[in-house]
Amino acid sequence: MMGHMDAAELIRSVPTDLFLGGEWVAAENGATFGVHDPATGEELARVADAGPGDAVRALDAAVAAGPAWAATPPRERAELLRAVWQKITDRADDFALLMTLEMGKALPESRSEVTYGAEFLRWFSEEAVRISGRYTPAPAGTGRVLVTKQPVGPCLAITPWNFPLAMGTRKIGPALAAGCTIIVKPASETPLTIQLLAQLFDEAGLPAGVLSVLPSSHASEVTGPLLEDPRLRKLTFTGSTEVGRTLAEKAGRSLLRTSLELGGNAPFVVFEDADLDAAVEGAVAAKLRNGGEACTAANRFHVHNSVREQFVAKLTERMASYKLGPGTEPDATLGPLVNEKQKKTVIELVQDAVSAGASVRLGGEAADGPGWFYPATVLDDVPHEARILKEEVFGPVAAVTGFDTEEEALAAANDTRYGLAAYIFTRDLDRALRVSHALETGIVGVNRGVVSDVAAPFGGIKDSGLGREGGTEGIEEFLETKYIALQ
Ligand SMILES: NC(=O)c1ccc[n+]([C@@H]2O[C@H](COP(=O)([O-])OP(=O)(O)OC[C@H]3O[C@@H](n4cnc5c(N)ncnc54)[C@H](O)[C@@H]3O)[C@@H](O)[C@H]2O)c1
Ligand SMILES: O=CCCC(=O)O
């Protein structure tokens, strides 16, 4: 276990050059950009600012390294992924502190993400040796069917700031397990975590060019040339629906294999027969995991009117117990939002709901002073037309509305362009299965407030994306299926 570094030592220890083709190099024009501490707004570090030329060089390296990596025995690929899982685990404290420093979330949230993010590498180290096809005589006796799986080829991964490690390993793990090479463009808010991950892959002996990392403050300029290059074979994007749509249009022109993990607007439905204490605990978990900055976050709470007052009172009490403060403070359980833009969005959505008639049961006012802090907030009686029921709040705000019948609850839950996660609390198994089937989402939590699991297929429908990550399904996004017709 590495010694525990303090924040300044840790920041200084993270490489800030580009990890490109197995080397650590400056950006083509020597440019750098600043990474800021959400708790103070102050600059934490400066990182190489990759340009389009760096991106093309990274793709050159990925193409050159591709055949040898694809031919590397699966067990060897597996052992390397497992070794990096171990390295992350050994440096869990460093990763947790680094994520809290650059993204803001409370340390317990970061520690939880380190375990979750590292696990994608262990999970896909095990999947690497289980890639299989099939063999069968053709039914008409006209020959034999041989089906095999091959790596899709060089990939581009574009990742968000809210789970800086896990959203990277959820792509890097299956890509490397499948025998693909991959270029990662992390969010400009949180490049340091992926920089540290790249260092561990480098230490583990990953062959040059298999992984390159391109931090950049010009995401579109850097990724544009790659999306137009026919040598690129896969785009895997996690981020907002707005950006995902733009990227899908570009990828469509090259008919790129594309995976999109996009925004969410999860309903949290509490039926009259629910275990109310369990529902409140589930609600707090679904709302405040990652400070509410999670695509799976419960955005809209639809509660049967017969239990709504009890539920809101209990939820308010539980959310009031969260301590707002810099994520590095030992007793903080709710950190700042990632940037000023995010804070302004949350303020706007709350003010819109209150203006439309919602009542504030907790919080509702942004904290003054430095940093982008917003308190845990509970709004009740939120009117149907309020923006907060239609837009992803991505902050610690619970918007509660009531219903009287299952049909009303289902109509409200599905009344959104998103379709990632949904949560239902009921003791009635028939109702749980009936409603789960009727919900227009890729994921349903039944009497659970946290659904994410490396062993499960993660993804959504409608405006929440295309494809699945994690589970046995996740590696298929990085494989092509080939049919060999035999006599
Ligand atoms: N479904 C999921 O698994 C999942 C997970 C995490 C976050 N998200 C979603 O991501 C959003 C928050 O993350 P965010 O603010 O980083 O999202 P974002 O879409 O602003 O940015 C995501 C990534 O895309 C890059 N990017 C932005 N514009 C680009 C462009 N024109 N071309 C190429 N790259 C571009 C960014 O630099 C970043 O690396 C939320 O909507 C959240 O729901 C979804
Ligand atoms: O923000 C997106 C959710 C990340 C996860 O829970 O896998």
UniProtKB/TrEMBL annotation:
SUPFAM superfamilies on file: ALDH-like
What's the domain of life for this entry?
Answer: Bacteria
Does this entry carry the keyword Thylakoid? no
Query: What Gene3D superfamilies would the database entry show?
Result: Aldehyde Dehydrogenase, Chain A, domain 1, Aldehyde Dehydrogenase, Chain A, domain 2
> What is the enzyme's class at the highest EC level?
oxidoreductase
Q: Name one GO biological process term.
A: gamma-aminobutyric acid catabolic process
Kindly list the GO molecular function terms attached to this UniProt entry. Answer: succinate-semialdehyde dehydrogenase (NAD+) activity; succinate-semialdehyde dehydrogenase (NADP+) activity
Q: What is its EC number?
A: 1.2.1.16, 1.2.1.79
Q: What residue stretches are annotated with the Aldehyde dehydrogenase domain?
A: 24-484
What CDD domains does the record point to?
ALDH_F5_SSADH_GabD
Question: Where is the catalytic site?
Answer: 261
InterPro entries xref list: Ald_DH/histidinol_DH (IPR016161), Ald_DH_C (IPR016163), Ald_DH_CS_CYS (IPR016160), Ald_DH_CS_GLU (IPR029510), Ald_DH_N (IPR016162), Aldehyde_DH_dom (IPR015590), Aldehyde_DH_Superfamily (IPR050740)
Q: Name one Pfam family in it.
A: Aldedh
Supply the alphabetized keyword list: Oxidoreductase
Q: Which PANTHER family match?
A: SUCCINATE-SEMIALDEHYDE DEHYDROGENASE, MITOCHONDRIAL (PTHR43353)
Q: Can you tell me which family this protein belongs to?
A: Belongs to the aldehyde dehydrogenase family.
Q: What is this protein called?
A: Succinate-semialdehyde dehydrogenase
| The species this protein was found in | Rhodococcus gordoniae
